[in-house]
User: What shape does this take?
Amino acid sequence: MKKTGQKFNLMDKMDTQGMSGPVDPNYKGSSKAEEYKPMEIHPRRLFTPEMVKEAKILINEVLDEREYKRKLRMNYDDPKPPGISYFDTEHFKHRINEPEPPYEPYEP
Assistant: This one.
């Protein structure tokens, strides 16, 4: 870079990295231009799919419990209590060689 006055001129030097052609002198290359494909973007998420699944279960359990408490305050005949929570780890204990007991979501 040359210093011109008080500023540096960045155009005095060309970056040529990666601009050289193929090394093989017999290389002809392809005669067709490749189709332009825009870059594919993979969105990044803060939570893993397992955490999202558990968050949805938690939100639904909280809403079900709130609905049950509301039905107890009002005049409902025998409201069905919410089932066992997904987060009740005592209920889902199992041996390492056994599958985890299935979770049945609450259905009013």
The beta strands are 2-4, 7-9. Residues 50-108 form one domain. The chain has a mean pLDDT of 81. The chain has one helix and two strands.
